[in-house]
Amino acid sequence: MKAEIVSIGTEILLGEILDTNARFIASRLPALGIDLYWTSQVGDNHGRLAELLRRAWGRSDLILCTGGLGPTEDDVTREAISDVVGEEPRVDAVQEEILRRFFAGRGIVMPERNLKQAWLTPSTRPIPNPRGTAPGWWVEKDGRILLAMPGPPAEMTRMWEEEVEPRLRGRSTGAVIVSRTIKTVGIGEGSVDEMIGDLLHTDNPSIGVYARADGIHVRVTAKAPATRQAESLIAPVEAELRRILSSAIWGIDDETLESSIGGLLLERGLSLATMESCTGGLLASTITDVSGSSLYFRGSIVSYATEVKEQFGVNPAIVETYGVISAETARAMAGAVRRTLHADVGVGITGVAGPTTQEDKPPGTVHIACDAGRGEPAVMSYTMAQGREAVKRRAVTNALFLIRRALLAAPTG
Ligand code: ATP
Ligand code: MG
């Protein structure tokens, strides 16, 4: 089944918002055995949208649109689809009733312009949308399927999960593609390549090696008539990779560094606190992206000013001797926050986010320390000139790796 995605909206075309709908849908198609051939973006323009849909209708079996189902003048998706399939849209009595009830439930009289959200054409079935006013459109004609889903991601993803995917699952006869990603740290891309050598030459499953911000990812991808068969093709290769890469593996599939560290802290019964300078709290924010982090995360001190570092326990003599941007100050910050916030593990980050130099240290200079309370704190120092945001993000990733290393090295608490 040949599919294409059409993202509708001038904001998307102009890059004002990211096309996360297309990314979401694209990521769901391989497992359904649907081949994606094209993705396009088009503004809220009736003529250009109709032109694009006409081309899609001529070349694809399945067209997946999002956006432009609102009630306003520039929501033209229904009009353009009707043009392409050559049908007249009409108000559907059942949909009108649902729409009026939706408004009544909120104590508002429905504006008449919303009535077009109750339109259907003879080849169109409505797709329920309890999160919004507009139903989706499931248009089926001449062996082709065209779906129109709302633009707001919360409405679209629910519609996809609950309504669309279950129906498409039975339709596609193609082979499904399933993959598993093994995430590693501490070995370079080239070394991983060498270590897994022979496995790289198989073609089902196939193996790809990718360098990412959070280490080297090895992805195993299998194609088979059904999910279970694809999984059994992956299983022996995954077992072999786990044997070869063993302790370098920190996570699988959607697992993140912050969630894997959360797991280690819980397992060991340890708590964590951070003192951040150049990352401005981004490490704490990332750690608390994990639900349940309150079980191990004590808090963070964003000690941007030197006096604040000292106020919360950093020895002024250390700053005086080595400078604020130094491994010694990072170490002192880690120890200070451990004590101040009564945590088992303390982390300190100091550095120059840029673009100007500080204490004669170039932008991108970062020192991170992790104090687990036993022996010398682990320290990581580097200079990597990038934009401010990238410097901050990289410091957070490296801090998470350092915490992981310290936790694995330390005896359980
Ligand atoms: P509404 O009834 O809210 O107008 P709609 O179906 O007409 O819904 P749009 O007007 O196209 O949808 O988009 C509404 C909002 O949904 C956009 O402002 C944007 O925030 C979000 N959105 C739309 N399309 C996408 C997309 N492809 N990726 C991510 N977000 C999107
Ligand atoms: Mg709209």
For the structure shown, list the relevant keywords.
single chain, alpha/beta, 6-stranded mixed β-sheet, binds adenosine-5'-triphosphate, binds magnesium ion
Query: What is the overall number of helices?
Result: 14
Biggest pleated-sheet summary: 6 strands, mixed
Q: What does the radius of gyration come to?
A: 27 Å
Query: Termini separation (Å)?
Result: 55 Å
Query: Which segments are poorly predicted (pLDDT under 50) over 5 or more consecutive residues?
Result: none
Listed once per kind, the bound small molecules are: adenosine-5'-triphosphate, magnesium ion
| Spatial shape | globular
Report mean pLDDT, rounded to a whole number: 95
Q: Can you count the beta strands?
A: 17
Q: Can you give the helix content as a percent range?
A: 25-40%
Give a structural overview:
The longest helix has 22 residues, at 388-409. Helix 2 packs parallel to helix 6 (153-171), helix 3 packs across helix 4 (77-85) and helix 9 runs parallel beside helix 14 (388-409). The protein contains 14 helices and 17 strands. The strands form 4 sheets. A 6-stranded mixed beta sheet has the order 2-1-3-8-7-6, with helices on both faces. Helix content is 39%, strand content 24%. By secondary structure, it is α/β, with parallel strands linked by helices. Bound molecules: adenosine-5'-triphosphate and magnesium ion. The site of adenosine-5'-triphosphate has 21 residues, from strand 1, helix 1 and helix 2.
